[in-house]
Sequence to fold (309 residues):
Amino acid sequence: MPSFAASPAFKAAAASPGEGSVWNTVKPFLNGGASGMIATCCIQPLDIVKVRIQLGQTGGPFGIASNIVAKEGFAALYKGLSAGLLRQATYTTARMGIFSTLSDELKKRNDGKELPLYQKAFAGLAAGGLGAMFGSPADLSLIRMQADGTLPPEQRRNYKHVGDALVRTVKEDGVGGLFAGAGTTAVRAMALNCGMLASNDQAKEMMAEAGMEGLSKTVTAAAVAGFFASFMSLPFDFVKTQLQKQQPLPDGTMPFKGMVDCFSKTVAEGGVLKLWTGFPTYYVRIAPHCMITLVALDSIKEFQKGMGL
Fold:
C-alpha cells in the first residue's frame, strides 16, 4: 500500500506555498497575532496607567506610574500581561487576519485596483467586530487584573494569572460572565480597527503616490493610524472599562444596565468630553501599540518574502 508521504495531497502540501494553500490562508492570522503580541510586551505599562486614569485615579501618567511602583512594586506595571498576550493571540490574530482576507477578496472584485476608503472602512469594521468576540474573555480578565489595585483590599479578586481569572469568572458568574461588556468591546474594536487599519492603508497609498517608500512610509502611516484609532475608539473604551470593572451596589443591582445606559449616565454627569477622559495617556498607549504592531507586521512580511514563504 503506498505511503501517505507519497500521496499527491502530501506532495502538494509540501510544495512551495502558492495561492490557495493552507499556509497562505493562515499566514495573515499568524502574522497579525505575532505583531500584536510584540507590541503588547512593549506597551503593557502604559496600558495599566491608562486603565487607572479611567477608573478615577488622579495625577499625571508619570505620577500614577510612580505611585503604582511605590505601592505595588515594579512588577505591577506588567500586571495582566498574560491576559494581554492571550487577548492578542485571539483578538488581534482574528482582526488582522480577517481584515487582510477581506481586503484581498475586495481587491479581486475590484479588478486588482486599490480599494476606495469606504471599502477599507467596511473591512476594518467587520474585522474589528468579529475579532472582538474571540478576544472578549481575555479582555475582561485583563481589565479586572489591571483594576484590582484600585479596589479596597476586601473587594480585590487577586487573580493569579489569566487562567485563574477565566476559571473563577466562570465559577462565579457563569460562562456568560466571560462576555460582560462584549457588546461595547465589539463596538470599540470596530471603531479602533476602522480608524487604524483603514487609515493606515489609505495613508500608505497616498504616500506612495507622493513618492515616499520604505520604512519612512511604514512609520508615518502607522502614526496616522494611531491617531485615528485613538480618537475614534476612546469613548467606547471608556464605557467598556466602566462596564467590565463594575461591581454590584448594596441593593444588588449593577451601576450600569448596559452600554447605552453607561454612555447616557457618563454624559449626564460629566458632559460629552468625559468620554475622552485620559486621551493623552490613551493616545500614548494606543498610537505606539498601533505603530509597533504595523511596523512589526511589515517586518514579518518582508522576512517571510525574503525566505520565500
Q: What stands out?
A: The CA atoms of residues 41 and 264 lie 35 Å apart. Residues 1-5, 9-16 have pLDDT under 50 and may be disordered.
